[in-house]
């Protein structure tokens, strides 16, 4: 076991995506379970899988920067509902009273973490989308899509709820379990 850990550390530290220093049975396990491309020996960041995670989720974990006097500047996390617009940007229906809404008004920088619907632990797929979330002026153009994705969220039509959208995605990180992580090119995401 010690040799395996040392071998894995060497692979990670050298940023070498080959699995030559791992015993053959472990190499086969990694290749079969972590989408390792056997031809290039680089991790295959499967854009189809990423899109499935994004489109098959209606809830995610939103992190904003706190504007509260006690926790100002620290991350604030909350579970939120979201939908995806036709441009592939996540959008949200937030109450004016919510802490994350108050944070976004002060600072739009945020991230949205999504997990695979079959998530069972750290070996499973997850994505973090980072960008700026901005209040939208035309709430009406988002209502139909949001109600389709969230048929029980009748409050979208209340006056004290507004639509916020991640207008500018600046980073997408993908984690597919141990030793399988990377960034997704923004243009590849939008073109997929």
In short:
The radius of gyration is 20 Å and the shape is globular. By secondary structure, the chain is an alpha+beta fold. It contains 6 helices and 8 strands.
Q: How does this model look, in words?
A:
This protein starts with a helix and ends with a helix. 19% of the residues are buried. The model is unreliable at 1-22 and 34-44 (pLDDT under 50). 29% of the residues lie in helices and 30% in strands. A hairpin with a 5-residue loop joins β7 and β8 (181-184). The chain folds into two domains: 2-33, no CATH class; 47-191, Pnp Oxidase, Chain A, CATH 2.30.110.10. With 192 residues, it is α+β, with helices and mostly antiparallel strands.
Order of helices and strands: HHHEEEEHEEHEEH
The named CATH superfamily of the largest domain: Electron Transport, Fmn-binding Protein, Chain A
How many strand units? 8
Question: Which CATH C-level class of the largest domain is it?
Answer: Mainly Beta
Kindly state the percentage of residues in helix: 25-40%
- The gross shape turns out to be globular
Overall pLDDT: 81
Unreliable stretches? 1-22, 34-44
The CATH architecture of the largest domain can be given as Roll
Q: Remind me, CATH topology of the largest domain? A: Pnp Oxidase, Chain A
């Amino acid at each position: 076991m010690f040799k395996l850990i040392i071998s894995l550390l060497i692979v990670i530290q050298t940023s070498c995506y080959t699995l030559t220093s791992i015993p053959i049975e472990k190499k086969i396990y990694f290749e079969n379970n972590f989408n390792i491309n056997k031809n290039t020996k680089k991790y295959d960041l499967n854009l189809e899988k990423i899109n499935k995670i994004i489109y098959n989720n209606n809830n995610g974990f939103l992190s904003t920067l706190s504007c509260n006097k006690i926790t100002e500047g620290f991350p604030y996390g909350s579970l939120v509902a979201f939908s995806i617009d036709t441009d592939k940007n996540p959008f949200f229906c937030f109450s004016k009273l919510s802490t994350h809404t108050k944070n976004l008004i002060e600072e739009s920088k945020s991230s949205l973490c999504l997990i695979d619907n079959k998530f069972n632990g750290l070996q499973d797929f997850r994505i973090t989308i980072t960008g700026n979330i901005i209040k939208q002026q035309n709430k009406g153009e988002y209502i139909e899509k949001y109600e389709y994705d969230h048929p029980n969220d009748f409050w979208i039509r209340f006056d004290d709820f507004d639509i916020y959208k991640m207008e500018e995605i600046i980073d997408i990180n993908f984690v597919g379990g141990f030793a399988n992580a990377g960034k997704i090119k923004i243009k590849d995401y939008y073109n997929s």
